[in-house]
Amino acid sequence: MATVYDINIKKLDEKAVIPTYGSEYAAGADLYACLDEAITIEPGQTVMVHTGIAMEIPEGFAGLVYARSGLASKKGLAPANKVGVVDADYRGEIMVALHNHGTQAQTVEPEERIAQLVIAPYIVGAFHQVDELSDTVRGAGGFGSTGK
């Protein structure tokens, strides 16, 4: 069973839809487009899509904005920054920079599900400059260095 936290949400627009989970075990809550009318996103174009909501994410957590698999596979629409990060101290409107990766113009309707939000804990690193790092078998091997 997942841990449940209360998340305070403020509607910034009366048309806004509060995020919803699509199933009992869904990790991501759907974010909805808050639009007066449908918009068209041309191939290669990125449009900032309003959600009409702001929220209080608990301290020690971040809101991670991911693509919705159906929207990405069927329409070629996904967040331009791949994963958006909503910090716990941010109180502004959550927006989604939706990019059209396809070859045809795509329409986004009012109240359409445009992304999903995962509330996740994070660790803050205490970074220390050193002269040497510990040795590992992998060493400095980069992209593709562990596979065939």
Short description:
With 148 residues, this protein is mainly beta.
Q: What's the overall average pLDDT, rounded?
A: 96
- What level of helicity do the residues show? under 10%
| Separation of the first and last Cα atoms | 38 Å
> Rough shape?
globular
CATH architecture heading = Distorted Sandwich
> What's the CATH H-level homologous superfamily?
Deoxyuridine triphosphatase (dUTPase)
* Structural class by SSE content: mainly beta
Give the total of beta strands. Answer: 12
- The fold-level CATH name is Deoxyuridine 5'-Triphosphate Nucleotidohydrolase, Chain A
Low-pLDDT stretches are none
Largest sheet: 5 strands, antiparallel
Strand content: 35-45%
The value of Rg in angstroms is 19 Å
GO molecular function: dUTP diphosphatase activity
Protein name: Deoxyuridine 5'-triphosphate nucleotidohydrolase
Family: Belongs to the dUTPase family.
Domain dUTPase-like: 15-147
